[in-house]
Design a protein that fits this description.
Blueprint lengths: L7 E5 L3 H6 L5 E4 L7 E7 L4 E11 L5 H6 L1 H4 L3 H6 L7 E16 L9 E3 L2 H16 L23 E7 L2 H6 L16 E2 L11 E4 L6 E3 L1 E2 L4 E2 L3 H10 L6 E8 L2 E7 L3
Parallel strand pairs: 1-3, 8-11, 9-14
Antiparallel strand pairs: 1-6, 2-5, 3-4, 4-5, 7-13, 9-10, 11-12, 13-14
């Protein structure tokens, strides 16, 4: 078997697949164990395509609610969901490594009767392998005829409404944060936490931006910015921001936001 041969895939719903593809989640919580180890595809539920791959390296023992809460950084399930019993049976961690987003999603046909694992057609496996080999070489050639792909859809096709805008300072750029103080009262109060992770909010919001995966975070009520900041470095780099540029924050649905950049003229 080739190093990058992917013969199976797993259907994963939002927001978990975005967290996984964004390197914010390395446990996939399931209701039972599995004998599979090695590479598998990440199917974005409802999209009909494989958006990435990961290696399944281990399966842990089922966790108690307290253990689930303590392991938040691995699975990203909010404490209120755990305590409510909404995810009670999803307590077995499938531990992942080498999560990789494909340059282009690969279409597949979902077979009848597939419940957990989806066995992939050889042509789909070949298309995934082509992209992984190109990534390894650092030269993604997306014109390969074996790449059965589709463009990433605009997230949820929401109707976006401006919440507010802020001008970036050099301090923002150097320390990877975006001030929201001028319109902080426009965010839901249950998504606003304290000054550190131990005081995080009861609810998270989702943030999307051009060029990157969905970010799940709460808001730091002390500093009045997004608590999760690792994505902001890439947002700044992707857009080539400079001091004085604007960041516009929009809302498309409850707890769902979009951040976009506007160059200073």
């Amino acid at each position: 078997m080739s190093e990058f041969e992917v013969q199976k895939a797993l259907v994963i719903d939002q927001p978990w697949i975005s967290l996984m593809l964004g390197s914010q989640k390395d446990w996939e919580m399931r209701s039972s164990s599995t004998a599979h180890r090695g590479w598998f595809g990440l199917i974005w539920k409802g999209m009909g395509s494989i958006y990435g791959v990961a290696r399944l390296v281990d399966v842990g023992s089922s966790l108690s609610p307290d253990e689930m809460v303590d392991a938040y950084e691995h699975h990203r399930i909010p404490e209120d969901m755990i305590r409510s019993g909404a995810v009670a049976k999803w307590n077995t961690p499938w531990k992942l490594a080498d999560v990789t987003r494909l340059p282009k999603p690969v279409r597949y046909k979902h077979p009848n009767g597939a419940v957990t694992w989806v066995n992939l057609d050889s042509s789909v496996s070949a298309a995934i392998q082509d992209q992984l080999l190109m990534l390894q070489k650092g030269t993604p050639n997306l014109e390969s005829p074996r790449n059965q792909t589709e463009d990433l859809p605009e997230s949820w096709h929401s109707v976006w409404r401006i919440v507010g805008e802020t001008s970036l300072t050099q301090g923002n750029i150097d320390h990877y944060h975006i001030y929201l103080r001028d319109f902080f009262d426009k965010f839901p109060t249950d998504a606003i936490g304290g000054s550190n992770k131990a005081l995080r909010a009861k609810r998270d919001i989702r943030v999307i931006w051009n060029g990157g995966p969905t970010v799940v975070t709460d808001l730091d009520g002390s500093k009045k910015f997004f608590r999760a900041r690792s994505w902001i470095r890439e947002f700044f780099r992707h857009n080539g921001v400079t001091a004085g540029d604007k960041v516009i924050v929009e809302v498309g649905a409850p707890y769902e936001y979009r951040v976009r950049h506007e160059k200073c003229q």
